[in-house]
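Kindly go through one protein, given below as sequence and tokens. The question is how this chain folds according to its tokens.

***
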Amino acid sequence: MVETFNATAGRGNVTVLNDALVTTAFELPGYRIVRSIGVVRGITVRSRSIVGNFFGALQSLFGGNITIYTELCEQARAETYRDMVMHARQRSANAIIGMRYDATEIMTGLTEVICYGTAVVVEPQ
């Protein structure tokens, strides 16, 4: 199955979407919003393997940071962020404002992670 969010549209904009133009704020200092495109998102559903759960349970016996789960969460967030940015590029945005993450446990051991924001076109002030 081809993910439509991973297609990159041709770009004629001077300002190119990069990590510096993705923010949790609703404005970008030094830029003005000239057009709002709409909501963009990246989504993934993750679970840890039986082996991963076993090692996670062992780590939890000793307390502290459960690194195997930390890595899983970081991978899920990175994946959804990347997909959100690709969705915005596909829609010809050059910035994303109001970016957020959310996670929901669908069932035991299965978690949905979503990254979303508002795709906009900005230009330097």
